[in-house]
Amino acid sequence: MASMLVVLDVDSTLIEQEAIELLADEAGSGAQVAAVTARAMAGELDFATSLAERVATLAGLDEAVFTRVAPRITLTPGARELVAGVQAAGGCVAVVSGGFHELLDPVAADLGLDAHRANRLELADARLTGRTTGPVIDAAAKAAALHEWALRFGVPLSRTVAVGDGANDLAMMAAAGLSIAFDAKTVVRAQAHVSLPQRDLSAVLAVLGLRG
User: Fold this and answer.
1) pLDDT digit string (tens) for 143-166?
2) Lower CB density within 10 Å: C or N end of the chain?
3) What is the pLDDT of residues 54-83, one digit of tens each?
4) pLDDT more than 90, % of the chain
5) What is the pTM of this model?
6) What is the spatial distance between Cα 166 and Cα 39, in angstroms, rounded to a whole number?
7) pLDDT tens digits, residue range 176-212?
8) Between helices 19-27 and 101-111, what is the axis angle to 10°?
9) The CATH number of domain 5-207 is 3.40.50.300
């Protein structure tokens, strides 16, 4: 049984980038996709619809794109400290992403995360089809993941923490015992228990009483 469960969003929270925009840059649709992402994170567009619209622009990319893009992903400052600090205190750290397993899996392994979940991109003949496969990780799926992991690790919801920045994190944050808006959109800051404006994830440790 873990002492607590911290669940983080990935794009623009755990990492500095939006993974889909890195892929879109390879497809020549970067500006178009960034505009849709901004509207979705501000709560102006349904996430599942916006995801389908953005992923469609990736059709035709070869699967080696993941290898080309991966080096451009950088962890947000304080990410390693946060994971190490929570785990040292007997807690678990998980991430749930509207991004993609193909880019998240190496990051999760590197950080030693206790659980992670994301969308998957469909491939045919070693090329992206422009569609996802399997369940869409939207706002409801993020909240469901928090509940599922709390049960798995034996943590009461009152000891769960959700950290996010966009509108699709709100359901997960509402389900958690403590919600933290991290360099977040206005709509998220307004509904979170705590707002951290600086891009340093180690600041979460102080909120949790794990650092002076």
Assistant:
1) 999 999 999 999 999 999 999 999
2) C
3) 999 999 999 999 999 999 999 999 999 999
4) 93
5) 0.96
6) 10
7) 999 999 999 999 999 999 999 999 999 999 999 998 5
8) 140
9) no
Structure tokens at 193: 């228990």
Q: Give the residue from 107, 124, 128 showing the smallest Cα distance to 55.
A: 128
Q: How far is CA 95 from the centre of its chain?
A: 6
Is 182 in contact with 163 (CB distance < 8 Å)? yes
Cα torsion 11, 12, 14, 17 to 10°: value is 70
In angstroms, the CA 200 to CA 204 distance is 8
CB 202 within 8 A of CB 82: yes
Closest CA to 8 of 193, 152, 181: 181
- What are the structural domain ranges in the chain? 5-207
Q: Return the CA Rg of the chain.
A: 16
Distances from the Cα of 139 to the Cαs of 43, 73, 170, in angstroms? 11, 23, 7
In the DSSP assignment, the letter for residue 17 is S
Catalytically active residues, by annotation = 9, 11
